Amino acid sequence: MKNYRRIENKEELEKIISRVLFSTFFHSLQWQEFLEKEFKWLKFEHYLYKDEAILPLTRFKVFGKEKLVSLPFCEYGGPLPLKQGIDFNEFRENILSEFNGNIKIKFHPKILSFFKISKSEEDKFFYDTLSYQIGNLSGAKEQELFQSFRLSIKQRIKKGLDENLTIDNCKTEQDLRDFYRVYVKSMKKNMALCYPFKIFEFLWQKSLKSELVEILIIKHSERVIAGILVVFYSGFAHYFLSGADYKYIEKN
After folding, report:
1. Does residue 236 share a domain with residue 167?
2. What is the pLDDT of residues 9-22, one digit of tens each?
3. What is the domain-level CATH number for residue 207?
4. According to the model, what pLDDT value does residue 127 have?
């Protein structure tokens, strides 16, 4: 390859990763090593692009055809920038030519801020993304924050308070399993693929030991009826997985 060099040595990879200007929870080597251990058909690879960015990829086969994805089991993958002002068109053309077009990348909104890219091109990547930004959160009072929400959210919060719903961190394995049960029902109702319980278990253990992950569950009469899993990185609170008991919602 002319512009991409595969990084084979783990020590070199760790040194280069320590220089990146932005990365997500999903780019961490610990997360990738966990996925490789649990899903033997996945193999992570890392490529250095002209000392300007790292491109992490996963190689696997589907119906005998090899695929490259950056990154699986997350909404956003993409390169890790090592400098500002990377030429996006050149980066994209080199990817298509050197990986024979057999590649799929979904960019994080923040990542593209490190590239030189036109507004019209940037918009193409974010047609299906949604995020919220709250400024000066540290100085905001509870009522001010509540008033900043749209009307439908305010109504749901008031409804939850009236029905004595409780919100708390997921502290026990039983609560985790109850949340996962609700999650599976939600995915089946929406005809979506479910992540395996092992991923929930790994992230729950992270939540007990660090502030990188938080799992919140909602209970009604001591029964888990909903939950949400959030990962934190680089100033982002990233909604990752959730589930809700639709029988409770429809009944109320």
Report:
1. yes
2. 999 999 999 999 99
3. 3.40.630.30
4. 43
Residues 167 and 117 both lie in one domain: no
DSSP the chain: --SEEE---HHHHHHHHTT-S---GGG-HHHHHHHHHH-TT-EEEEEEETTTEEEEEEEEEETTEEEEEE-SSSS-B--EESSS-EEHHHHHHHHHHHTTT-EEE-B-TTGGGGEE--HHHHHHT-TT------TTGGG--HHHHHHHS-HHHHHHHHHHHHTT-EEEE--SHHHHHHHHHHHHHHHHHTT-PPPPHHHHHHHHHHHHH-SSEEEEEEEETTEEEEEEEEEEETTEEEEEEEEE-HHHHHH-
Residues 180 and 78 in one domain: no
Which range (1-5, 176-180, 224-228) has the least confidence? 1-5
For residue 129, what pLDDT is reported? 47
Report if residue 157 sits inside a domain: no
Give the number of domains in the chain: 2
Residue 151 domain-assigned (yes or no): no
- Inside any domain, residue 222: yes
Same domain, 105 and 201: no
Which of 124, 155, 183 is where one domain is finished?
124
Q: How confident is the model at residue 250 (pLDDT cuts 50, 70, 90)?
A: low
Q: Does the pLDDT of residue 208 top 50, yes or no?
A: yes
Domain boundary among 99, 124, 149: 124
Range of the domain at 107: 4-124
